[in-house]
Specification:
It is a single chain. The protein is α/β, with parallel strands linked by helices. It has helices at about 1-20, 30-40, 145-150, and strands spanning about 65, 75-80, 90, 105, 115, 135, 160. Strands 1-2-4-6-7 form a five-stranded mixed sheet, with no helix packed on it. Strands 3-5 form a two-stranded parallel sheet. The protein starts with a helix and ends in a 14-residue tail after the last strand.
Length: about 170
């Protein structure tokens, strides 16, 4: 019986190493931030993101989320088309993304976002999400002000702004 258990343990170790390590949960601060995002997208009466459950510590397994296999931190967030279009234009509090220190891919397209909520005292803190390489803000309600907002992202490689309310000549830097 001892040999059988040893073989079973060796098989389990091989399977884990072949599949790669998957995080069992996620960081508490990121889970709380995700739940705050869910509330923001559902305000005042939406029903989006039903798999994002308050008592579930395994947010890396929630829909529309990808986590790194090494650290269990959130790396990609696909919130395209999550907000009910009938709720109209709205302003998203970009500081809700601050806990996601390893976030490199963010899709917020098709949500009728008209702009960002400023922090108290003015300005925005969204640029502190310093690893963002890909942002899709297409099919929203942004105007030309979004361009000055995006200047603070040094790691940004792709920005999609198609089907927004951009007008006139646009001066692109870098």
């Amino acid at each position: 019986m001892g040999l059988f258990l040893q073989m079973l343990m060796a098989l389990a170790i091989m399977m884990v190493s072949l599949q790669g390590w998957q995080p069992l949960g996620c960081l508490e601060e990121e889970r709380i931030a995700l739940l705050n995002l869910k509330d923001a997208f559902n305000y005042p009466n939406g029903t989006s993101l039903p798999s994002w459950i308050k008592g579930d510590a395994h947010c890396c397994y929630w829909e529309r989320i990808e986590c790194s296999s090494s650290a269990g931190r959130l790396t990609a967030l696909a919130l395209d088309g999550v907000r009910n279009q009938e709720l109209g234009d709205w302003y998203l509090n970009a500081s809700l993304f601050l806990p996601f220190q390893e976030l490199y891919w963010l899709d917020l397209s098709r949500n009728r976002i008209a702009g960002w909520v400023e922090k108290k005292g003015g300005g925005y803190e969204f640029q502190k999400v310093s690893n963002l390489e890909y942002i899709d803000l297409g099919v929203n309600r942004f105007d030309n002000n979004i361009l000055s907002f995006m200047e603070g992202f040094s790691s940004l490689k792709s920005l999609y702004l198609d089907y927004n309310r951009l007008e006139g000549l646009i001066n692109l830097k870098g």
